[in-house]
Amino acid sequence: MKSLEELKEIRQKTLDKINMRKEDKEEAVRVVVGMATCGIAAGARPVMIAFIEECAKRGLRHVQVTQTGCIGLCQHEPMADVIIPGMEKVTYIKLTPEKARRIVLEHIVNGRPIAEYAIGSQEDA
Amino acid sequence: MELFRSHVLVCGGTGCTSSGSDLIIEQFEKQLADHDLENEIKVIRTGCFGLCEAGPVVIVYPEGTFYSHVKPADVKEIVEEHLLKGRVVRRLVYAEKGEHPDAGKPLDEISFYKHQTRVALRNCGVIDPENIDEYIAFDGYMALAKCLTEMSPQEVIDHIKAANLRGRGGGGFPAGNKWQFAANSKADKKYVICNADEGDPGAFMDRSVLEGDPHSVLEAMAICGYAIGSDEGYIYVRAEYPIAVERLKTAIKQAREYGLLGKNILGSDFSFDINLRLGAGAFVCGEETALMASIEGKRGEPKPKPPFPAVSGLFAKPTNINNVETYANVPPIINKGIEWFHSMGTERSPGTKVFALGGKINNTGLVEVPMGTPLRTVIYDIGGGIPKNKKFKAVQTGGPSGGCIPASLLDVPIEYDSLIEIGSMMGSGGMVVMDEDNCMVDIARFFLDFTVEESCGKCTPCRLGTKRMLEILNRIVEGKGEDGDIERLERLARTISSSSLCGLGQTAPNPVLSTLRYFRDEYEAHIYEKRCPAHHCKSLVHLEITEDCRGCTACARVCPVGAISGDVRQQHHIDIDKCTKCLSCIEKCRFNAIIKV
Ligand SMILES: Cc1cc2nc3c(=O)[nH]c(=O)nc-3n(C[C@H](O)[C@H](O)[C@H](O)COP(=O)(O)O)c2cc1C
């Protein structure tokens, strides 16, 4: 390494990977994926991975993708909550990896929740 | 996938390692592989989290769930429940005394951490100490880069001076002034030394910094090298710290590979490299002149000062020597500035100090608090108070050079100068808590026993004087104290303090003097009444069975010398001539019927 720029580059690259351990989490956006047996059986794992990869691709370091257990609406799985500080929590249901990627773009990046994926908007519940 | 959705941090400090954290890491790796999670979840061995009492400790991010007393057998459940299904394993979550485990508070709200401010320990338990990239991600080597690109050596020294960073190794001497002296010395070669000998009984602050964040010390030494005009450093670390030694070796290797140590660092014309030297564990080798003699391959014996190391130190060249924790403070001071540093601590002692909390205290471990924090906060709020509802008696700070502070002074702020005023000292940060069962004469005897053992023998007052003091103390605790012993101790103490060659002898009488100051009545009870008020000194107590005895015979059966007799369902008796006071009977008795008198 011969310059400050190279040092900064390593810092940035590693930060992306370990940001979840930093203290200043106030600004954090949280995506909570239901990962109980019901969720996993319905395909929650690829959904969660899609969230993670899409956030990584877009360099959204303030987004934490975490998981939670069963909330009792197993028929709606895979489900995920998107919690953005200052906005109302949105619960998405019957997710697929494609829907997850769209949610990252529309809801998290552009700030427009996708009503048609959210709970309550689908009749076939 | 390079990116992991969850990080499992397992404490790899010496404490948790000895209670099996390696096995836990092994189990995590195996279980994660079994569940196909190894590409999603990363396991990291970190440095000490500080709450050693709760070890082995595991933290799961991003949630920040704090698991304590984790056993290898628990790992399967954590993986299957928490990591696979997102259900926190409540029964393993750390809970404070008297609190329902469901509380499961986040890390920074647990009282043990709430009152702490982590500067020297900022990365301990947060980063992987064997991965330089993680150190860099947390602003590592940025301070060195800033010094090399934006500051002149004199500006660096002025910055450390203005911050008023005082030596954390015990003396509290301003680091900036020391750097200035070394910078002012003209020479073809200069050295930077890190004192990682940490010899105080019970102290493990420096070990934890080296284990948890070795790069911060390397970076600071390079900064010091730049400031004083040196191109070579030595870290003197005791061989009894094998984990610290390994991590230092790894860190030095990585820093060299990145060109952060070696020739022309970051493209500048500054070059600096660091060597490791292992000490064999003699306490006196922590004294700076003895330490340098030891690095030179000579006997570890101190030399008179002046000349000071800044003028003629290692290999007779100008040398700057600082303690591990002192160095660990340097990078954040450069990065965050003087005002930030002054926002913590007191005017005379800005910043924080790390303490190793031990003895009769609920939360044994490592704590870092702003200077000026009252002892009471450390012992009750962070330390969780005294176990078994016993009464606090004293806290010992400063190790063998320090003193005992009684309950009446618990509100004194912890600071270099205030502790000296009350007859103790900051020392390197050992803090041993004592309760009503500790005999203060015996405590003084313990520390003197240590200095007698560790005196290098070069100067007479220390070699012979401490020995004479110890003989008197031994007599007193054996019930053979005589009128005039206290005065003899005081006279010896004065002579030894004023005439010893190095700090070891000069401060050796402190434990005796401070206990005489605050607990003179205990000395007098031993000498004149042949009584140990704490019922601790074996020669001065005997055991008695009270009327509460139900005659269950448990004590008689456990007594190894057959000193207890009595019929079933009748009060038993102890033959005090036969009794060896091993106390096994007290432990066995379910009716608290055996007492020390
Ligand atoms: C007997 C004796 C033992 C010492 N042991 C240590 C030690 O283990 N670690 C340490 O940093 N300083 C120790 N010191 C203090 C060092 O001599 C020296 O003051 C210190 O390394 C300076 O660093 P600082 O200014 O950063 O505190 C000891 C001093 C004496 C007299």
The percent range for strand residues of chain A is: 15-25%
Strand count of chain A:
4
Helix content of chain B: 25-40%
**CATH architecture call of the largest domain in chain B:** 3-Layer(aba) Sandwich
Proportion of residues in β-strands of chain B: 5-15%
What is the correct CATH architecture of chain A?
3-Layer(aba) Sandwich
Highest CATH level, the class of chain A: Alpha Beta
How many domains would you count in the coordinates of chain B? 5
How many strand elements of chain B?
17
User: Can you say what the CATH homologous superfamily of the largest domain in chain B is?
Assistant: NADH-ubiquinone oxidoreductase 51kDa subunit
Strand order of the largest sheet of chain B: 10-9-13-11-12
Number of helices, counting only DSSP H or I runs of 4 residues or more of chain B: 24
Rg measurement of chain A, Å = 16 Å
- The gyration radius over C-alpha positions of chain B equals 26 Å
Give the low-confidence spans of chain B: none
Brief summary:
Chain A has four helices and four strands; from the N terminus they run αβααβββα. Chain A is of the alpha+beta class and 125 residues long. Chain A has one domain: Glutaredoxin.
Describe this structure in words.
The complex is a heterodimer of chains A (125) and B (597). With 125 residues, chain A is an alpha+beta fold. Chain A has one domain (25-117): Glutaredoxin. Helix content of chain A is 38%, strand content 15%. Chain A has a four-stranded mixed beta sheet. The longest helix of chain A is centred in the N-terminal third of the chain and has 15 residues, at 4-18. The termini of chain A are far apart. By secondary structure, chain B is α/β, with parallel strands linked by helices. Chain B has a five-stranded mixed beta sheet. In chain B, helix 6 packs parallel to helix 10, helix 6 crosses helix 13 (324-336) and helix 19 packs across helix 21 (510-518). Chain B is globular. The mean pLDDT of chain B is 93. At the A-B interface, helix 1, helix 3 and strand 2 of A face strand 1, helix 5 and helix 6 of B.
